[in-house]
Amino acid sequence: MNHAQLTALGRALRLLGEHGEALTTDTPDAKLHEMRVDLRRALDLLEESASTTAPSTRCPEHPNGPVDEAAPDLCLLCETRRRSARRAEYGGGGPARSRPAEPVQSRYGLRDDRPQPQQRWLPEAWNGQAWQLCGTPRRDRREAELYLAAERRGPRPALAYRLVHEFTDYEVLRVWGNPVRTDIEPMP
Questions:
Q1: Looking at residues 18-33, what average pLDDT do you find?
Q2: Is the pLDDT of residue 171 over 90?
């Protein structure tokens, strides 16, 4: 997106915001038609500005990679990496147990040459419907637990908090409180 497109799109979206703030129950039809024209103009500008295809996965590392419907982020590449990590964790090397004692030279290098995946601790809060991230993911577990302790003592604590360990996969480490599902109140 170049600067001219960015400026035009920003102007169109601000105009739509002004229309939304001025909207009342007795807005005349002429004003509604004007809003529709402005909305179409903003959509056209957005269509022109989007230069790449829509991502096929929810993975930030491989947004247009192959899709695996069973994966939480729909990314086949990351799910394959997670599955192999789970197999290795349980000592199941699969059919590759009869490997030679000496490593065979590969064009991709040895495993020790590649960087290890990073681990993070994700603080999450229960919003009444689902778990949602409630702070910045931390590299230190103690720091994440201290953050959640401060959140629980804060002015508006959630019903429940949990700490999730992310390292090629997700594992819930600890839960504070009881997450109770609440139905959304119907609008009158």
A1: 88
A2: no
